[in-house]
Amino acid sequence: MSDELVFAAEANVTEQPTSPRKPWKVLIVDDDEEVHSITKLALRNFTFDDRPLQFIHAYTGVEGIEQLREHKDVAVCLLDVVMETEHAGLDTASRIRTELKNSFVRIVLRTGQPGQAPEETIIAEYDINDYKEKTELTRGKLHTLM
Question: Does the residue 132 lie in any domain?
Fold first, then answer.
């Protein structure tokens, strides 16, 4: 019998890199390219529940519906009221809830023309989550909104 110590081989443990958390999808539907750029800039470092944002872009109500068909897990839709028609955003909101039957996505209507439609009526009739004037959506308010 030998007094030699024998050790079990150490397992080769390699740390698994933590995969980044799946981003929240934010759909921006607006016919003004600058609104897309400003929104992305204001929210570029935003995270919620350790998840970043992924921006999806549409420039008409029809494109917005197409994007929602493709991305069924959009968390927030920032939707302009006036685009290709005076009420394109309202029509799009209606289609999201009725045609797509998507009750998951939070719809935030954004308007550059306040007073065009009464806020309380719009929120109730179109099952939207919020109604904001574009001028009031500063960086801080966009963060709060998210």
Answer: yes
pLDDT tens profile 80-95: 999 999 999 999 999 9
Task: Give the domain CATH number at 129.
Answer: 3.40.50.2300
116: closest CA among 85, 78, 138, 142?
85
Q: DSSP states of 17-82 as a string?
A: PPPPPPPEEEEEE-S-HHHHHHHHHHTTT-EETTEEEEEEEESSHHHHHHHHHH-TTEEEEEEESS
34 within domain boundaries: yes
Task: Specify the pTM.
Answer: 0.83
Q: Residue type for 47, please?
A: T
